[in-house]
């Protein structure tokens, strides 16, 4: 019996020796298993822990409907109707568009039944329809970081503003925004070699790396024919969200008339008392300004007013005429399509038709005609009504806010990008 007990103690000793480190170095080398296992962070998106679901991500295809997507994921049509009816004030399920992304969160069981549908109408906004228990619907936005960009460019020979801006690394949306800022003060159809610009604007990013387009332009200067034109973004009424662009003397950039009825394209024929008509083959006055552009390009009304004619003639083709007040009237000829009717009120910048080549036209363009006190005049030579100055009560705040912006703008060289700077996060 004593031998058996002794043998047992020997075995216990041997086993203990196998688990005990021989020295301090070996002891340091041994780690608890909990320290070795890598900690996996949960994946959150749209406010959900995606690890709790079977996740389906796709884009809306031709023929897809909310009901069919739900049916594929084990939601019956009575429940689909209930979801659609409950969520109708938040989102109309019939509005889903081809190409837009969606996410379906399904249960982690053998049925994998849909519990939540998330639709993204754009890269920032999303709509949530949660029907795991009761039906909840709401709209939200992805967190967006705004990165400040500073850029400059110089118009070269045979180049355009949009091309110069693209060459400088900006997108079409920034080029369009800048054109709209100076829409009332600069004739972009008459740019010259050596004209130059500088601007400070925000670019939006999702998840730090995915660009979501540009935000508002904060400040810009465009030097045209040696004269600098400044523009600064300024909030005039925080409660109403009212804002606009003003120059360095606090005058509003917006004027009574836009400089042109199109975005940045080219002038092919100016207002002239004598021109050889390319179709009629004879000399006659050309009392309009021709802007060449591809067929279908939107034509914008240059000032607010009432449509007094929307018709077709053999010479004008499809045309629209707008009366702005007792002094000014404008006309837009050769449209491929008219989009307004007689008696309709239109606001400055509204699209009233599309570029075409109807009537006496050799190619797609819009002939822009301008009347002052019943007489046709050249809009490019006409002195337009001045803009309204900023309210006196806001001027002190305005000048204080634009001072550092102007200093930073003036410091940008006319060559290349300046380092980006993260300025805010929403």
TrEMBL record:
Protein location: Cell envelope
Residues of the Csd3-like second N-terminal domain: 147-273
One Gene Ontology MF term: metal ion binding
Keyword Transmembrane: no
Known cofactor(s): Zn(2+)
Gene Ontology annotations of biological process type: proteolysis
GO cellular component terms attached to this protein's record: cell envelope
InterPro entries registered for this protein in UniProt: Cell_wall_metabolism_enzyme, Csd3_N2, Dup_hybrid_motif, M23ase_b-sheet_dom
Keywords recorded for this protein, A-Z: Hydrolase, Metal-binding, Metalloprotease, Protease, Zinc
PROSITE patterns, per database record: PROKAR_LIPOPROTEIN (PS51257)
Span of domain M23ase beta-sheet core: 285-379
Domain of life: Bacteria
PANTHER family xrefs: CELL DIVISION PROTEIN YTFB, PEPTIDASE-RELATED
Protein name, entry field: Peptidase M23
Protein species of origin: Neptunitalea chrysea
């Amino acid at each position: 019996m004593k031998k058996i007990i002794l043998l047992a103690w020997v075995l216990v000793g041997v086993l203990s020796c196998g688990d005990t480190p021989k020295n301090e170095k070996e002891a340091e080398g041994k780690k608890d298993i909990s320290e070795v296992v890598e900690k996996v962070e949960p994946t959150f998106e749209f406010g959900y822990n995606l690890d709790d679901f079977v996740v389906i991500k796709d884009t809306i295809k031709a023929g897809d409907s909310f009901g069919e997507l739900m049916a594929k994921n084990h939601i019956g049509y009575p429940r689909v109707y209930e979801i659609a009816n409950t969520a109708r004030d938040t989102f109309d399920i019939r509005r889903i568009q081809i190409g837009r992304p969606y996410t379906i969160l399904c249960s982690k069981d053998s049925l994998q039944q849909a519990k939540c549908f998330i639709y993204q109408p754009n890269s920032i906004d999303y709509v949530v329809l949660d029907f795991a228990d009761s039906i909840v619907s709401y709209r939200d936005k992805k967190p967006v970081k705004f990165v400040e960009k500073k850029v400059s460019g110089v118009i070269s020979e045979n180049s355009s503003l949009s091309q110069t801006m693209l060459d400088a690394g900006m997108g079409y949306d920034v080029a369009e925004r800048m054109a709209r800022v100076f829409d009332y003060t600069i004739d972009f159809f008459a740019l010259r070699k050596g004209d130059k610009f500088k601007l400070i604007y925000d670019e939006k990013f999702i998840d730090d790396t995915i660009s979501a387009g540009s935000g508002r332009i904060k400040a810009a200067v465009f030097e045209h024919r040696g004269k600098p034109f400044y523009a600064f973004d300024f909030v005039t009424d925080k409660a109403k969200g009212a804002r606009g662009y003003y120059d360095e003397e606090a005058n509003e950039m917006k004027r009574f008339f836009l400089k042109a009825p199109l975005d940045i394209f080219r002038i092919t024929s100016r207002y002239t008392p004598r021109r050889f008509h390319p179709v009629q083959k004879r000399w006659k006055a050309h009392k309009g300004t021709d802007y060449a552009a591809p067929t279908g390009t939107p034509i914008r009304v240059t000032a607010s007013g009432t449509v007094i004619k929307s018709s077709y003639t053999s010479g004008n083709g499809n045309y629209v005429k707008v009366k702005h007040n007792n002094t000014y009237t404008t006309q837009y000829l050769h449209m491929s399509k008219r989009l307004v009717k007689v008696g309709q009120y239109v606001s400055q910048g509204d699209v009233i038709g599309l570029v075409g080549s109807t009537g006496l036209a050799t190619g797609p363009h819009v002939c822009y005609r301008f009347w002052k006190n019943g007489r046709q005049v050249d809009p490019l030579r006409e002195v337009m009504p001045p803009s309204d100055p900023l309210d006196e009560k806001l001027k002190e705040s305005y000048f204080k806010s634009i001072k550092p912006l102007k200093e930073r703008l003036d410091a940008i060289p006319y060559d290349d990008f300046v380092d980006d700077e993260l300025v805010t996060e929403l």
